[in-house]
Specification:
Rossmann fold; binds S-adenosylmethionine; ten-stranded mixed sheet; 14 helices; 472 residues
């Protein structure tokens, strides 16, 4: 493709009858200028290289898309971009700015190790460190150590997060998985880019359940998932279906459907009782039941209006108790619940099982469980009436997010679109992936998506297109 064709693909509006209108191009370029200011925020977290990392987010990509595989028929729903996510995030700006509903990333944690991908952004300790340490004041030494351990990782993440933030819709939300190596630095970074007020939660994910020995002091069982809204005031409420266990609690039934019993007496004594909520209630045998706690939940007027929802039961002590019916459906829809900041439904074991189910072995290290990703998708998009949501994962690894989107769409008949980005990092020669014939992590990702699609709808054409980033 020559440079004029590339320009036409980027700015089709600047071409009239195939000829470039320079004035129009200049106007379009002006509109494309990043809205952020020309330098990073001076306050907050600072490290050597921040200015340069910021500039990396502002310069155009020197790559172009190269669509290598397309499916027959209609425009594919999903995209796998093979290349560096910094370029991908830049190239996505014209088409996807403020359009993405949900971003999930599981970036390298900076553990200092190497898995099937680089996970060490730390600098080597200086040879003369021991000698120089005695001459350097402790606060300066701490600063140097922070720089050595975290500077490289922060410089890698900063421009990517700035660009990701620009892609999020005003109602969008971003989830970032991390362990304790960079959790504290990421909080500062996200606070700076998203604004501290847009922190939704830090979800603690119990990733394994093992106990016993294996650590000198405390065995890590949890990781973090930091959740930030683009604008918390515009982020729709999250909800999820009741668990099977919760549904079983609705064990009674009348003509309005299944219901459970909730005590009418309000628990807790945080505030003084409201006089209209403290009164005796007449039991079926004519005796009067005093309020057993500091107040009832309903006033006498509400009680009279909703008499058919009141149930009297005698306890083991032969004393009357008053309950209200809570139906499983509310306004014709099944009740849902609000997710909590502690998540333990799926562990890393589920992640490896998911991969084994598709490949017969664990071809890449530590894939996230598909169930975890499906749950996050349900939190954000489960109740939305919007049919099309764009979901982005720009550290895709083996493609867990892609699998979750495919499976959830199949389960609820929706059309969430997913965009995955994975660098074609070579698989280590001794790895299971390499032995199985996958030369890059992106190959594993692509094959995983193919296998999931085959599993779900063997006769359908693929809904994924694969786009390679190549230097211009
Ligand atoms: C922790 S893994 C993600 C695992 C994934 N969540 C899963 O379930 O398989 C991080 C991935 O990000 C990829 N990666 C690292 N730097 C990247 C970059 N600059 N662009 C795109 N992908 C990158 C690595 O190759 C690695 O596969």
């Amino acid at each position: 493709m020559n440079r004029m064709d590339q320009l036409q693909r980027l700015f089709p509006e600047a071409f009239v009858d195939g000829r470039l209108d320079l004035e129009q191009l200049a106007k379009l370029c002006e509109q494309e200028q990043p809205t952020t200011t020309g330098s990073p925020r001076q306050s907050g977290l600072w490290w050597e290289g921040k200015e340069q990392a910021y500039q990396e987010s502002q310069t155009p990509s020197l790559c172009q898309w190269e669509v290598q595989e397309t499916t027959s028929g209609a425009e594919p729903l999903h995209t796998l971009i093979v290349g560096d996510n910094l370029d991908a995030l830049k190239l996505m700006q014209p088409d996807y700015r403020e359009r993405v509903s949900m971003i999930y990333i599981d970036p390298p944690y900076n553990t200092g190790q190497t898995f099937s991908y680089r996970d060490n952004y730390r600098k080597q300790k200086s040879q003369n460190r021991a000698k120089s340490n005695s001459q350097v004041p402790p606060h300066q030494r701490a600063g140097e150590e922070f720089q050595r351990r975290h500077g490289g990782w922060l410089s890698m993440m900063y421009p990517r997060l700035i660009l990701a933030h620009q892609l999020l819709a005003p109602t969008g939300v971003m989830f970032v998985s991390l362990d304790d190596n960079e959790h504290h630095s990421l909080r500062f970074l996200m606070d700076e880019i998203f604004g501290e007020d847009n922190l939704v939660a830090n979800v603690i994910w119990r990733k394994k359940v093992v106990r016993g020995r294996g650590a000198t002091h405390i065995l890590p069982q949890t990781e973090n998932i930091l959740v930030y809204a683009k604008d918390l005031s515009q982020l729709p409420a999250f909800s999820e279906p009741l668990t099977e266990k919760m549904r079983k609690e609705y064990r009674y039934e009348d003509d309005q459907g299944p219901y459970k019993l909730i005590p009418l007496a309000k628990s807790g004594t945080a505030h003084s009782p409201r006089p209209n909520l403290v009164y005796p209630i007449e039991a079926p045998d004519g005796t009067m039941i005093p309020c057993p706690t500091h107040q009832w939940r309903w006033s006498q007027e509400t009680l009279a209006a909703k008499r058919d929802q009141i149930v009297f039961r005698k306890g083991r002590d032969k004393k009357w108790r008053v309950f209200t019916k809570q139906y499983m459906t509310l306004n014709g829809k099944d009740r849902r619940r609000t997710p909590t900041s502690y998540y333990d439904s799926y562990t890393t074991t589920h992640g490896t099982q998911d991969m084994k189910a598709l490949f017969g072995e664990v071809v890449l290290d530590f894939p996230k469980p598909v169930g975890l990703l499906e749950d996050l998708l349900v939190w954000v998009t489960g109740e939305s009436t919007e049919q099309e949501h764009i979901i982005l994962d720009f550290f895709a690894g083996s493609g867990t997010t892609g699998e979750a989107v495919l499976r959830l769409n199949q389960a609820d008949g929706r059309n969430r679109r997913c965009i995955l980005v994975q660098i074609p990092a070579p698989t280590p020669t001794k790895s299971a992936a390499h032995r199985a014939g996958y030369t890059t992590v992106a190959d594993v990702c692509q094959e995983r998506l193919r296998r999931v699609e085959e599993d779900l709808a063997p006769d359908e054409p693929s809904a994924f297109r694969c786009v390679h980033l190549t230097p211009m």
